[in-house]
């Protein structure tokens, strides 16, 4: 196995292909509404990550119905994962979150619910509700945390409004409640070097995170980062360099962690730069090919946990 792909995980866990259904909620995030920041992360456009979403004014039931109408005939899909994707999907009163999640998992063909949020929007009260729903409905619930990098200096520069500590706290809490945890990482943020990404893989592995989603940076028009890009305050690394970072990241990552993506599907519209004008699948295939040819694989360098210096006394 070159890397532990999400599609393989889904087949193992649910016995067949499972399809994520993106759901948009009428939300904002504390890094936009003034609670911890007003202007958002410097790379984030006004619609967040929701370019794949249906209008948030539609009910969850309606969004699920419309997404299924498209997917079911095309792929003969039978099992689904509603995915609260855009903005911070736990940034609301706990009762509201409970209602949304219950609506999302109302039908028997839902095997899991995935919820994207910020590390500072997770708390024991919310996790208790999610753990209860997971148990009662016999589904998995995965909390997807935006981290992007473990480099707290870069986090400050991109105006994340949280540091590394909030992320670690959130992961430990999510795991304590028996829920799944996914982490989003951007592998080529300006100001991060190659070692930052290796350390990101190591910290994620040490925390026992279940899944990871990797992205390449894309520059959305009319953002602070677009301004910096146009002013040549930073340069984006080459596609070759990105592929190398993915390989280094995978080699250092625990083999038990599922990779939802090696590179995101960046929108071409409204961007100044996205995925080197190359299809994400092409970049993914090239990464896999290079790893196969060089006999590299996920976890090959994951030998630093569980007291690596004393391992020699235990043989
Ligand atoms: S936390 Fe997410 S939604 Fe909020 S500004 Fe940052 S990227 Fe955008």
TrEMBL record:
<dbReference type="GO" id="GO:0003824">
    <property type="term" value="F:catalytic activity"/>
</dbReference>
<dbReference type="InterPro" id="IPR039661">
    <property type="entry name" value="ELP3"/>
</dbReference>
<dbReference type="InterPro" id="IPR023404">
    <property type="entry name" value="rSAM_horseshoe"/>
</dbReference>
<dbReference type="InterPro" id="IPR058240">
    <property type="entry name" value="rSAM_sf"/>
</dbReference>
<dbReference type="Pfam" id="PF04055">
    <property type="entry name" value="Radical_SAM"/>
</dbReference>
<dbReference type="InterPro" id="IPR032432">
    <property type="entry name" value="Radical_SAM_C"/>
</dbReference>
<dbReference type="GO" id="GO:0051539">
    <property type="term" value="F:4 iron, 4 sulfur cluster binding"/>
</dbReference>
<dbReference type="InterPro" id="IPR005911">
    <property type="entry name" value="YhcC-like"/>
</dbReference>
<keyword id="KW-0479">Metal-binding</keyword>
<keyword id="KW-0411">Iron-sulfur</keyword>
<dbReference type="InterPro" id="IPR006638">
    <property type="entry name" value="Elp3/MiaA/NifB-like_rSAM"/>
</dbReference>
<dbReference type="InterPro" id="IPR007197">
    <property type="entry name" value="rSAM"/>
</dbReference>
<keyword id="KW-0949">S-adenosyl-L-methionine</keyword>
<dbReference type="GO" id="GO:0046872">
    <property type="term" value="F:metal ion binding"/>
</dbReference>
<dbReference type="Pfam" id="PF16199">
    <property type="entry name" value="Radical_SAM_C"/>
</dbReference>
<protein>
    <submittedName>
        <fullName>Coproporphyrinogen III oxidase</fullName>
    </submittedName>
</protein>
<keyword id="KW-0408">Iron</keyword>
<feature type="domain" description="Radical SAM core">
    <location>
        <begin position="13"/>
        <end position="256"/>
    </location>
</feature>
<keyword id="KW-0004">4Fe-4S</keyword>
